[in-house]
């Protein structure tokens, strides 16, 4: 299964839109081709998927005539297996990356910049800017300690506003602040994040808040794994 | 040989004339015109609802004009009509083919349509007498995959296909009323103008074409993209067109100026655009990329002002409701989410 993923990586491919459907169909055909069918049939399917460099005309057409002929009634079992496989692969591709165990204390502005820029491009970085004495900071810190244990591929960090070297920008009115980065890009910027939360908030509240913005990764593979068929109308 | 050379020279000369004419009316740039407008600021959308029920990647979705119901098409071979407020499934329609590329909701709310690798556009009646949803028509004539379809009314629908044509169908009789030919590559997407008089198509010949529906003619052709155009949409006032391409950019073309006004690009973005939806005001443009991310662009200043879904690499399709109150995203993990 991993071998076919590698091969797929090499073929030029789109994953979304109509071309995504064509690509998924091609992969399905390649995967479900009977093992007893000779090697040359697979080769043919593979060749049809990659346009030849010299054929400019061919590049404008996404499906070949032979491919159209191959579309036919497909085995439902094969399809179900293929769908699960697709989602499994996507989940694996996204959970690959370094893991962390606790909240990191950043000591300086440089450390802050470094964590934003140098982390793995798939790693979500959540930075809590706090200050001693400012309401909500201590509470948020303990919430993040909890979340750091649950979301091991998210890098939670905290930094004292004074240590950032930009204390004027992070004055007490805007603290605690939560900044979310990925691949060097700011995805979420929540100043005075406690105003979005209740007076007494817990790790689950912070988790729910970040989830509303789609900022936390899925905790587990939760897509419907069982194949209950939903026939007819459901109200 | 001499005649070919002459015709080629003539064609080139005409192209030069068109370029010159366009340049002549270009008295300003969008950047200059929008310079004094205040920035939009960071846009952070929140998930309001999650629609669960599909079993595989969502390939397409379309809102109903009531901004409450929407239809989604998935690799699991189903069309599901959702009530986005209650998250209930109103209808679950099994399809003959799992390879569905597009779905559409009729403005009346009575019909939905879908199509894909089966080369057909299947129309379903949601308001059948006995309450069951059945296939009402199967519009078959395209010799290529059905990349997109949009209803004009309960009796007319326009489809775009991998056979390089777009077709206007009479749903009642199941026949082709008009064939819009001219593209030199697979047609990937289409959008109907707000007044229903025109539609635009984007294709793998790197161009977008504006078609007059009743005159059955191509009015304008827009070039400039360096690769296939995968997604296309009308700017809300109907005077401009936005395209999304495999060259990783989106472009805004003005219909009256007959030229490109601005390109939405960023050196950090290297994968193709596969879906797009402008906000109802036109100020924001949501663009879905092939890496499953969605960037939110300030349409006037051509700057990115946010990302959707935390850049979690999940989004396979997007759509903005007609009242502009929410946008819906479909994911490869089978869920749809409503955001605003």
Automatic annotation (TrEMBL), chain A:
Task: State the GO CC annotations.
Answer: cytosol; nucleus; photoreceptor inner segment; photoreceptor outer segment
CDD domains linked to this entry: Phd_like_Phd
Annotated Acidic residues bias: 1-11
| Location in the cell | Cell projection, Cilium, Photoreceptor outer segment; Cytoplasm, Cytosol; Nucleus; Photoreceptor inner segment
Q: Which Pfam families match?
A: Phosducin
Q: Which family does it belong to?
A: Belongs to the phosducin family.
* UniProt region (Disordered), positions on chain: 1-22, 39-58
Main location (coarse class): other
- Family matches, as InterPro entries: Phosducin, Phosducin-like_reg, Phosducin_N_dom_sf, Phosducin_thioredoxin-like_dom, Thioredoxin-like_sf
Top-level taxon: Eukaryota
The UniProt regions of compositional bias labelled Basic and acidic residues, in chain numbering, are 40-58
Q: Which key words tag this protein in UniProt?
A: Cell projection, Cilium, Cytoplasm, Nucleus, Phosphoprotein, Sensory transduction, Vision
Residue intervals of the Phosducin domain? 4-222
What is the protein's given name?
Answer: Phosducin
Kindly state a single biological-process term from the GO annotations of this entry: regulation of G protein-coupled receptor signaling pathway
Automatic annotation (TrEMBL), chain B:
- SMART domains attached to this UniProt entry: WD40
Which spans of this chain does UniProt mark as WD repeats?
51-92, 139-179, 180-221, 222-263, 308-340
PROSITE patterns (alphabetical):
WD_REPEATS_1, WD_REPEATS_2, WD_REPEATS_REGION
Alphabetically ordered keywords of this record: Repeat, Transducer, WD repeat
Q: Which Pfam families match?
A: WD40_Gbeta
InterPro entries hit by this protein: G-protein_beta_1-5, WD40/YVTN_repeat-like_dom_sf, WD40_G-protein_beta-like, WD40_PAC1, WD40_repeat_CS, WD40_repeat_dom_sf, WD40_rpt
Entry keyword annotation includes Glycoprotein: no
| One Gene Ontology term from the biological process aspect of the record | signal transduction
The protein's superkingdom reads Eukaryota
The Swiss-Prot or TrEMBL record describes its family as follows: Belongs to the WD repeat G protein beta family.
**Identification of the protein by name:** Guanine nucleotide-binding protein G(I)/G(S)/G(T) subunit beta-3-like
Identify the species of origin. Answer: Stegastes partitus
């Amino acid at each position: 299964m991993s071998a076919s993923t590698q091969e797929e990586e090499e073929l030029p491919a789109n994953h979304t839109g109509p071309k995504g459907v064509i690509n998924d169909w091609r992969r399905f055909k390649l995967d479900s081709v009977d093992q007893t069918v000779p090697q040359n049939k697979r080769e043919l399917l593979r060749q049809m998927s990659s346009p030849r460099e010299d054929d400019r005309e061919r590049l404008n057409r996404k499906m070949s005539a032979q491919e159209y002929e191959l579309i036919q009634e497909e085995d439902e079992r094969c399809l179900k297996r293929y769908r699960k496989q697709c989602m499994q692969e996507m989940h694996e591709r996204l959970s690959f990356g370094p893991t962390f165990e606790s909240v990191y204390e950043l000591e300086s502005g440089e450390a802050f910049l470094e964590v934003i820029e140098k982390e793995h491009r798939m790693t979500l970085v959540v930075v809590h800017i706090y200050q001693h004495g400012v309401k909500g900071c201590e509470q948020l810190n303990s919430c993040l300690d909890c979340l750091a244990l649950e979301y091991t591929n998210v890098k939670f960090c905290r930094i004292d506003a004074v240590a950032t070297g930009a204390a004027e920008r992070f004055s007490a009115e805007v603290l605690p602040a939560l900044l979310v980065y990925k691949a060097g890009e700011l995805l979420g910027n929540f100043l005075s994040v406690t105003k979005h939360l209740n007076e007494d908030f817990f790790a689950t509240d912070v988790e729910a808040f970040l989830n509303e913005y789609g900022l936390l990764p899925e905790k587990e593979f939760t897509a419907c794994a069982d194949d209950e068929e939903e026939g007819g109308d459901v109200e | 040989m001499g005649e070919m050379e002459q015709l080629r020279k003539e064609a080139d000369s005409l192209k030069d004339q068109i370029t010159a004419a366009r340049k002549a009316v270009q008295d300003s740039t969008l950047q200059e015109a929008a310079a004094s407008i205040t920035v939009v600021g960071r846009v952070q959308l929140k998930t309001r609802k999650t629609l669960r029920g599909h079993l595989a990647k969502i390939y397409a979705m379309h809102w109903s004009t009531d901004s409450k119901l929407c239809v989604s098409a998935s690799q699991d071979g189903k069309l599901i009509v959702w009530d986005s407020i209650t998250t209930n499934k109103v209808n679950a329609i099994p399809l003959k083919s799992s390879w569905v590329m597009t779905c559409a909701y009729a403005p009346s709310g009575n019909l939905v349509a879908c199509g894909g690798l089966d080369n057909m556009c299947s129309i379903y009646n949601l308001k059948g007498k006995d309450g069951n949803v059945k296939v009402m028509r199967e519009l078959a004539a395209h010799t290529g995959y059905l990349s997109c379809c949009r209803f004009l009314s309960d009796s007319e629908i326009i489809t775009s296909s991998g056979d390089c044509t777009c077709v206007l169908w009479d749903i009642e009789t199941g026949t082709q009323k008009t064939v819009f030919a001219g593209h030199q590559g697979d047609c990937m997407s289409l959008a109907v103008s707000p007044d229903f008089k025109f539609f635009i198509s984007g294709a793998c010949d790197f161009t977008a074409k504006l078609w007059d529906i009743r005159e059955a003619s191509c009015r304008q052709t827009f070039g400039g993209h360096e690769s296939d155009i995968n997604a296309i949409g009308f700017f809300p006032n109907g005077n401009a067109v936005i395209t999304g391409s495999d060259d990783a950019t989106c472009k805004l073309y003005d219909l009256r100026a007959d030229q490109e006004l601005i390109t939405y690009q960023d050196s950090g973005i290297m994968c193709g655009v596969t879906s797009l939806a402008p906000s109802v005001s036109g100020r924001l443009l949501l663009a879905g990329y092939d890496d499953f991310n969605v960037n939110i662009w300030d349409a006037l200043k051509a700057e990115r002002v946010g990302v959707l879904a935390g850049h979690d690499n999940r989004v396979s399709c997007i759509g903005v409701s007609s009242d502009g109150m929410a946008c819906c995203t479909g994911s490869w993990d089978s869920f749809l989410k409503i955001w605003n």
